[in-house]
Automatic annotation (TrEMBL):
Residues 137-180 form the Zinc finger CGNR domain. It comes from the Bacteria. Pfam families: ABATE, zf-CGNR. InterPro entries: ABATE, ABATE_dom_sf, Znf_CGNR. SUPFAM superfamilies: Jann2411-like (SSF160904). This is Zinc finger CGNR domain-containing protein.
Length: 191
């Protein structure tokens, strides 16, 4: 699957945004405008002007709608959800060359509000995934009790956890300890 640098960056922002939701991490990670501003800076989201409470509300609502794509029961439902997000964003594709990234396409109007900006950019990234027939790459972590999402960009689509160092490692350690307890419970031969 060919994923452009722009799409990969947008998918990374998408995952980070979705994983700020209370259902993903137990508490709201974008509780106020300051947190949203920090998110924009951390994710290097370009052409964002001032942010306010209305922007935060729009981003929270958009986050929920984008999360639905990861839970879509069919390609048709995913397409419906993505099309609605992109249509409401009023995409304005344009070539741009900034921050030493070379020529690439922005799908949002210059200096659009953060809601339509993210809806266009993230919606188009999801559209490319669906168009490539790769919807199964949009996953939820398989670790018990974890509701974080991720995009599996591995060649063989084998990624199972949002983070192999936390969720994956925790399950591997738990399995190892269970095997150790099981081995200790078995009496040694000849006793």
């Amino acid at each position: 699957m060919l994923i452009t640098h722009d799409t990969e960056c947008a998918l990374s922002i998408l995952v980070e945004l979705l994983n700020t939701a209370p259902e993903a991490c137990g508490s709201e990670r974008l509780p106020d405008v300051a947190a949203l501003s920090a998110f924009v800076v951390r994710q290097e989201i370009s052409e964002v002007d001032s942010l306010g409470p209305a922007d935060l509300a729009v981003v929270h609502e958009l986050r929920g709608r984008l999360r639905e794509v990861f839970a879509a029961e069919s390609v048709e439902r995913a397409v419906e959800l993505v099309n609605a997000v992109v249509a409401e964003a009023g995409t304005t594709p344009r070539l741009t060359n900034h921050d030493h990234h070379g020529w690439h396409v922005h799908y949002f109007a210059p200096h659009a509000a953060i809601g339509p900006h993210l809806a266009a950019e993230l919606g188009m990234a999801l559209a490319f995934i669906v168009m490539a027939g790769e919807l199964e790459r949009l996953r939820r972590c398989e670790a018990p009790g974890c509701a974080r999402v991720f995009v599996d960009l591995s060649r063989n689509r084998s990624r199972r956890y949002c983070d192999s160092r936390t969720c994956g490692n925790r399950l591997h350690v738990a399995a190892y300890r269970a095997r150790q307890r099981s081995a200790e419970a078995v009496p040694a031969p000849g006793r």
